Amino acid sequence: MPDKTCSFSLDHYREILQTAKESGYEFLLFDELLSTAEQCCLLRHDIDYTPEKATEFGKIEADLGIRSTYFFQIVAWTYNIRERASYQAIRELSDMGHQIALHFDVTWRGASQWEELPNLCTKERELLSHLTGLDIPDIVSFHNPGTYANKVIDKEVAGIHHTYEPRYFSAYKYLSDSQGWYEGCVCKLFESGKYPRIQLLTHPYIWWDDPHSDFIENMSALINMRRDQLTEYMIEHHPVCTKNQDQLRSFVKSDLK
Ligand SMILES: [Zn+2]
Ligand SMILES: [Zn+2]
Fold it and tell me: Which ligand is nearest the CA of 102, by number?
């Protein structure tokens, strides 16, 4: 393989997966743990902001013959899975052979009793199934698991199968891109084979065709992208915005210092 430049680019995402495959890692879904593979990776994506970017990941994986699990919220402030682009993204991922699962967050109803969670989780999985028209597997990933860290991380939870339970967590090396890599780029870890069993969590919104080197700059690019999309949406759908679109665009820009 030619020299790789580590970054949060989609090209490098492909290289990471290629490196894993060339180093002998087998990719598993969460219900495939019986595999006898010596080196394996549970590949998981939590979708917090940009469902449409998830399909870019899904295509790269499908090209390489890899299946993974995409966890979607049904209560996200930032997207709506029945909005056309999000809904299509989910259906496309499923058509590519990936699994769609629940990214579980019950903060929409204020404080919940811990004992209520299994029942709420079942209902949310049913709702996700209804909204997407897909079978939703019996595995969830907790959004912001730190909220329940002492009850969830490396713990079994009665009535809920989840990605942080011991057989997926302490039995594996857990790696996440959520705040940048904390043990160097994961391509190096696949290359060295240092950890034979890896649960790899990625968030597609972090990855770009042409990313900035700075994490905060990438976050601001995401926010600006959504601002521009909302501006165009208002111009298309609201008659006053349509009529005054030049003025609107200049106000939107001038509000940003
Ligand atoms: Zn790398
Ligand atoms: Zn999340």
Answer: 2
